[in-house]
# Entry
Amino acid sequence: MLTKILSLKESFLNELQQATSSIDLEALKVKYLGKKGPIQALMQALKDTPAKERPEFGKHINVLKEEINRQIEEKQKTIIDIEEKQQLAQEKIDVTLPGRQRFVGRKHVITQQLDHMIDILVGMGFSVQYGPDIDTDYYNFEALNFPPDHPARDMQDTFYINSNVLLRTHTSNIQARIMEHHKPPIRIIAPGKVYRNETITARSHVFFIK
# Structure
């Protein structure tokens, strides 16, 4: 057993001297320390040695295993240092080249079309007006002459935060606000999200763009 251990150590040191790259070292580590390697085979062979000799041989095997690990790590540091220097010597950066522009994203196709329609209407003399997504019942319904018993006021159609505050069901709430402070003629567009308490399907959602 001791002869096998010494022979294995000699073989490893010879192959270690021939290793010239980090790839060679990794292959060497797998060869000797892998599950199917000779170190593991020696550990399995211990069961066939006399009981009195097992502690001594087990100690020699562990020492060899630690020695192989240490030798590989030391040479790996040297080889990695050499490889990094070679890579730096071979790589060149042309600082005169123009920078590369990075595109972080683009607008959604619906947003693109909305912007396009807004541009057309603005060119026709309309102004763009925005209002709150969360509004009062007055601006969302009452100011637009929705009667108290109108179906749109039901909980089944509208998201109410409380009895007087809700998620707007249309952007017409902006019209009432504009008319409070501007005299006719009024030419506006009021794009934005609206919310309705509907079943979500492949064709509809609880909010959409108007």
About this structure: Strands lie at 127-128, 134-136, 165-167, 188-189, 193-195, 207-209.
